[in-house]
Structures are given as structure tokens and as C-alpha cells.
């Protein structure tokens, strides 16, 4: 029996349907699922028991080890006695500030309830981390590494390492996070940290057993993040060279260093080859720019070693000039691909016309007898209704006013105003942001939702003439940048990611006391090409409870 035209047409239609289904299945990026039970527990990271916030009983929390474009589903069960949110430091949440985990974007997960984050780590590779964003909870633990690998067909500009080590290093306080918050609320400071931790361990526990096991002749990747809240750190490995390869999602020119400064909130990756005499060697981190240096070591052990590390540690660098010069040596790898196949250098950031300059000066002062920090005279406070929800529901009246912060700092001596702080940025405009730090101590700033180009930095106050010193060719695209004491730093970026995005100091004392603001970037097209609709599972609180949903975004 031969097939007739109708049977052949039907078969062809079935084959086409199966082919389209196969394409659809292939087009769906993989999903990774996590269940996190967040609860108090007792640990002794500094040698004495203290109450901490743990994820599934662990500190640090579970590593999110994934590939670019993976869908990440994290179901968070809040078993502590406070509202809770997690933010994903450096993850851009393209078109989805709904998942960003900051108090201005989302209602908190209340005690005894759960919430599921549904995220796609779209077009990103590199080293990042997560942590709780409400109050001083970040000082109680619950942070962890995010490691995003390139897709198989995207070339990586170095050979696969023998192993990939996560290194979460930072200062640590033994005071309970609620005590730290109370101290700040009553006008006191949080003081000096008790010490340093590497991957949640003190010096004794980081060396026995060894934290890093290597074999002679092989090369290893170290993903380092400064997860502290107070101090810059310098990292180095006894007798070994550090070859920088990645910084906050960008491949870098592969310069070699004896040591590297990592400022609060920053992440980087370096390669180190086990090319010394087999034995034990110290991985070292020490504080920078504060009186009374604190140091922590962890052991890196060659296979078969029975030789202890040398007692003498390599010295950390001294002074600000060394750190600034090292920053100037960091370069974007223009020929390497990042998350996408096109070379990083195909984006000529230095040739784009600047449409607006926002100069932000930090300040501190007393408000009602208590210390506050501010940007351009406004000290941010979180309202009961998250800013993003108030904006989406057109319910901003009584919640916040736009643009209390202007594009230039107020006159010196202007009283600090405490209020929700939201500035607007026109969608798809190229904006220069200048941070000025008049303080005697270093600051670092992070912008959620974006990476930016840190084009320049220098002493004193910024002027238009300062642009002559900019690197307009190959500065590294990143999400966190330092501002040295009594100095300025200038960054540039295209505001093409619609949403409500937090810009903040990473010194958590300053963040808690108001040195932050939100940037509202809205698409006038109300198009799904620019921003996703509010997820069905979004929590509601404050003024928007019970309000009808606004018209959804559509494909324009």
C-alpha cells in the first residue's frame, strides 16, 4: 500500500511538529533547584560559640554552581524570627528586579513562611556571592558563593584548571547582628571586627585539615570574594604567583601579581600553578588601611607533603599608592568572549556620548542626635511598601518622591534629610556617575542590575578636566568599585535594564545608616522586551495589599 497525499501531508505535519517540539525543548535552558531552610544555629567561627544565621545548617551557605543562562530556583524557608531577603550580589536579574532581593524591590519573607526565587543568570559568567540584605543580618552569616561557568561552545581564554577553589574571605564580628543593629540605632558604631574568616573558618580550622589540596605541576583557579562588611583585604599565596583571569564577570588581561587587594563586595579569579618544591604553603589574607593589621592563613598542601609551611609570611603592601596603581593595571581582555560568543572589546564604551553626569558625594552627620550617612544630602530609609511595588501599582504618593537627590551635591553644611531616596534614569541612556568620598577611610559602591566601566579615579574633587585621565579603551566591566579617601571614582554605563535598582555603599554600617539610593529605570513602551511583569508569586505588603493589578506589559 502506498501513502496518498493526505497521509504524506499528515506525516509531514507530524514530523514538523516533532521538530518544533525538539527545538523548543533544546531552547529551554536547564533548571537548578535549591531548598534552603534558613534558621538560627550555634557555631564557633572565632573559637567561641555564637548565634548565627545558617542555611541548611551550613556556614557558609551552599554554593550555587551553574552555567550561564541556567534557570535558578531557590525556595527559601524563613525559620528565623525576623523578616528575610536574599540578594544576589552582581547578578544582573535582566528585566527582573522583582527577584533582586533588596527591601526596595520585594516584600520580605516573613518568619514561618517561604518564598521561591525564580531567576535566570542570563548572559553572565564569573564569580559572585549572595547574602541576606535586611538590617545587619549580613553580619550573622548566610552568605555563599555563586560560580557561573561559560557554556560549552563559548571559548574561555585559559586552559581548564585542575580544580576550582571558592574562597570567601572577610572580616567577622562576634557580637550578635541584633546587637550591632541596636548599637547603630542608638547612635553608636559597630567598632572593629573580631578577626577574619576564610570559608567560614578561623586560622586554626583553615589549616587542619588543609583547605586547598594541589598536585605539583598543575594549575588551579581561586575564586576570591571579600564578603566582609568593614575592611579591604590583601590576598597572596606564599611563594606562588597569582595570574588574574576574571573579575566580577569579565575576563581580564592575564597580568601576574605577588598579591592582590580585594575591596569589600568585590570578587576576582586568579590562576596559580603548583610549581614550587612540594610542601605546605600559606594562603594569606590581611587587612588594609586600618590600624592594627589582622591576618589569617589557610594551608595549601601539595600531594604527599609532610613539610609544614615556612613561618615567615610574605609582607602585605603598604599605603594607598600601591593599591591605586594596582587598580590601574587591571585591563579588560578585549579579544576574549565572556558569556556570549562576541569579543568583550566589540563594545566600545569609550566612544559613546555621555548624556548625563550624576555626581554623588557621601556625607555623614547627626539627625535627631544619631549618626546618619547620606548621598547628596539624602539618607535613605526603607518604607513599608517596597519602592518597586509602589511604582508598579502607581501608588507612590505617600511612599516616596522621585529625585530628592539631585545630580550635584548640595552646599556644604546642608542638613541631612532622611527619606526614601529614588532617582530616575531614562531608559537606554549612557550616564556617567561620579562618586566622591570626603572621608578619611575607603568606601566601595555597588550597583544592582548592572555592570559599569570604572573609567577613572583620583584625589580630591572631580571636575570635567578629570575626564582627560579616563581609560576609554579597556577598563574592566564590573559591578563594585572602590573610592579611596578624599578621592573620586567615575563609572559609565548604559541604563538598559528596566527596573528599580539599589546603589549602595558596601560598608554595611554606612548602608544601614542610609548611604544608598535606588535608581528607577522604566521603559515608556511598557514592553516585555524591556521588563517582565510582576511574577504571580510575588509577595505583597504595605499599601499595595488588595490593589488590582495594573495592565500587564505586552510585546510592543
TrEMBL record:
One Pfam family this sequence matches: Cu-oxidase_2
Ranges where the Plastocyanin-like domain occurs: 38-151, 166-305, 385-522
Record flagged with keyword Signal: yes
Source species, domain of life: Eukaryota
Signal peptide stretch: 1-27
GO MF annotation: an example: oxidoreductase activity
InterPro entries tied to this protein: Cu-oxidase-like_N, Cu-oxidase_2nd, Cu-oxidase_C, Cu-oxidase_fam, Cupredoxin
Ribonucleoprotein is among the record's keywords: no
Keyword list, A-Z: Signal
Record-stated family: Belongs to the multicopper oxidase family.
PANTHER family: MULTI-COPPER OXIDASE, OS01G0816700 PROTEIN
Name of the protein described by the UniProt record: L-ascorbate oxidase
Organism: Triticum aestivum
